[in-house]
Amino acid sequence: MTRGREKKIMAYVVTGACVDCVYTSCVDECPVAAFHEAPDKLLINPETCIDCDACVAACPVEAIHAEDDVPEDQQEWIAINLTAEEFPVIEAAKDALKGPKCVNPNAA
Ligand code: SF4
Ligand code: SF4
C-alpha cells in the first residue's frame, strides 16, 4: 500500500495511551533514535524507524502498535506520528510525565 511517501510506509505508531503518561521507557529500546518528544506525548519518526519491534513491549500502557495493528479508534495517530520531525529527538528515558490525562499513572 502506498501513502504518497517516497521512502517507505510507516511501520510503528505511538497512539493515544501515551498522551500525558509519557513513560519514555520505549526510548531506551530504540536502536536508531526514532522517538521525538512533543509536549504531552512521544511520536515515532517513520523516516528513522527500522521496524524492529523492540519498543512495543517496553510501553507500560501498550501505546505502540505496528501500523497494520493500530486499533480502529486510534487510526488518526498514524497521521499524528507523521508530524514527529516537528519535535526534538529524545534519545534517553527520563521521568514520566504522568499528567492529568494519563490513562494509567500507576503502570510503571
Ligand atoms: S513507553 Fe509508551 S507511554 Fe511511555 S513514552 Fe513510550 S509510547 Fe509513550
Ligand atoms: S520499532 Fe524499533 S526502530 Fe521503530 S521506534 Fe520502535 S524501537 Fe525504534
Explain this structure.
The protein is mainly beta and 108 residues long. It has a domain at 12-86: Alpha-Beta Plaits, CATH 3.30.70.20. Helices cover 6% and strands 13% of the residues. The protein has one helix and four strands, in the order E-E-E-E-H. The chain has one helix at residues 76-81, and strands spanning 12-14, 35-38, 41-44, 64-66. The strands form two sheets. A two-stranded antiparallel ribbon has the order 1-4. Strands 2-3 form a two-stranded antiparallel sheet. Strand 2 (35-38) and strand 3 form a beta hairpin. The longest helix has 6 residues, at 76-81. One iron/sulfur cluster binds at residues 14, 18, 21-26, 42, 58-59, 61, 63-64. One iron/sulfur cluster binds at residues 12, 29-30, 32, 34, 44, 49-55.
Write the layout of secondary structure elements.
Elements: E1 12-14, E2 35-38, E3 41-44, E4 64-66, H1 76-81
Antiparallel strand pairs: 1-4, 2-3
Shape summary? globular
Oligomeric state of the chains in view: single chain
Broad CATH class of the domain at 12-86: Alpha Beta
| E-strand count | 4
CATH architecture of the domain at 12-86: 2-Layer Sandwich
Largest sheet entry: 2 strands, antiparallel
Structural class: mainly beta
| Low-pLDDT regions | 1-5
Radius of gyration: 13 Å
List key phrases describing it.
single chain; 108 residues; mainly beta; Alpha-Beta Plaits; two-stranded antiparallel ribbon; 6% helix
Short characterization:
With 108 residues, this protein is mainly beta.
